[in-house]
Design brief:
The chain is α/β, with parallel strands linked by helices. The chain is built from 17 helices and 13 strands. The longest helix has 31 residues. The protein starts with a helix and ends with a helix. Homodimer.
Amino acid sequence: MALSRKLVQQRSSVFGSRSMSWWRSVEPAPKDPILGVTEAFLADPSPDKVNVGVGAYRDDNGKPVVLECVREAERRIAGNLNMEYLPMGGSVKKVEETLKLAYGENSEHIKDKRIAAVQALSGTGACRLFADFQKRFRPESQIYIPVPTWANHHNIWRDAHVPQKTFRYYHPETKGLDFAGLVDDIKNAPNGSFFLLHACAHNPTGVDPSEEQWKEISKLIKEKGHFPFFDMAYQGFASGDPERDAKAIRIFLEDGHLIGIAQSYAKNMGLYGQRVGCLSMLCEDEKQAVAVKSQLQMLARPMYSNPPVHGALIVSTILGDQELKTLWLKEVKGMADRIIGMRTALRENLEKLGSPLSWEHITNQIGMFCYSGMTPEQVDRLTNEFHIYMTRNGRISMAGVTTGNVGYLANAIHEVTKST
């Protein structure tokens, strides 16, 4: 008995020491470049500090906003529904209304039931679900991602073990689209490649192709047999008109592409923390759409089983009621118009200061972000000398610009760039 006890103690000692060393090799992860900016901003005691790094809408007082249509939807659903699980594919009503926004209210593709669609965990979750689907069913494929892009795109396809390539997109000298480079890279990519495209309000540059350029891109992608996957995080939030912001997708549909789309309600309904999104894939016919949807659900099952219910109820309530939908369209236009107005004000302030640089790109770009063209060193000066916080690539979140701080921001930018 004593021997047995001794053996147990020895084994416990061995296993105990082994368990103590399991995680010793784990190093701290690098800080997220955007979340790190917010942390530094919050820690700064200066009363003059300005945060133009955050990717969330703010009103003209710099405060977070909850749309009135969202508040009304919450009042209507409060206490009226249970909290049972949604199906793996999410809320059917919410998905149906979401598809109308992307594919068109009277889309033949919807009527023909050719679209496989599931509710996803906002746009990030939709992209990840697609990346895993791509890896499972086209394991030999790769994804072409624009330079630059939202940094998390690289993380998503990397963790799904999909090989990545890049294609040219932004032209630093013109601060606009590198259309010639983009076209060249589409032509030179192996036939049947996957291309990640921003449907509108490209993040981080705010540079979008024109309608004619989109038509040329669609034509080339079809000629090469590439698969276009659209990340549409800003529909309605870019121009103030959801139909206008879906123009690129409609062009590709008219050209007969089979496409994938990631949609999000974070920006255009302000439902950031609710994580409400949708992944859809246009298929050859209804039978194929049923099969694809079933496989998307199978991918979701071990990830998160099924999506959350509250945000889906908000979206379906707003889009399913004409009065609330009209109010939403008015409010999303108001958000877009405020950002467009701040672009004009920032440019005008810089020009009044006699800046030797051209700031036309501020108003030529669209959406939440302005790719300012400032260097990391200039951004560091903005932070260290003026308490202005943004990512080191010079991306300004126009949502953080207000009538109260736009003059201060312009003066600071002028100071750090006037000797350029």
